[in-house]
User: Fold this.
Amino acid sequence: MRFSTLSLLATVASAAFSFAAPVTPTENALEARCLCQDIHSIITDVTTTITPLVTELTYITSDNCTVEVLTPIIGEIKGVLSTAISQVQGLTGKTVVTLLTTVDGVLLTVTDVAQLVVGLLNLIFGALAVVLKVVTSVNAAAVIALLCEVVELVAELLQAILNVVGGLLAILLPLVGEVVLSVIATLGLISKFSFLSVTWSTVSSTVFSTAFTSTYTSLSTAIATATATA
Ligand SMILES: *[C@@H]1O[C@H](CO)[C@@H](O)[C@H](O)[C@H]1NC(C)=O
Assistant:
């Protein structure tokens, strides 16, 4: 199965747009001081904060897809994700109504939460897929190790959200896109996502083989090395 860079960018752009579009200055101010009492404010806050960082990743080219260029961007993304993980963990013990009521007083359905989560996943994994597509074999091992750090935090965040929002997994799973699962499989991080109960045997772990016909062997060696040392 082949993903064109264009469709990945379209996924990222539409994910970013769907979150960017309805934000008014008032909502922005609310999000900026995330009340963090509900799942909606946490997920929209992380999505809004992460969007410009993730967008930078989509402009990476094979010339600047290096550890030096990526480290500050990845570092910021990791910071945002770590904050969100502790915020979600802080929701433990709150009532379902508290968790699911937005700062505007709207009671979300579990499907609404699933859509917020999927938007965030598409945004992050779409950009990581772009990076994986442009990385050269000489930089692959180090870059992949960096990407793994992000994806491991995404796994933690996702697990934390699933822990507090009962019934979310069954609704979420069918919505999770092929790009998300393929990047996880390609990075060798399936075990970090075992809580998803995905049938990984049907997921392509070689999304990038078409684009990387010449460097694929060294890339998969790099992945094996990066995973072994992770
Ligand atoms: C990488 O290079 C591209 C093309 O020159 C540029 O548009 C992009 O901003 C660069 N990214 C970073 C993070 O330096």
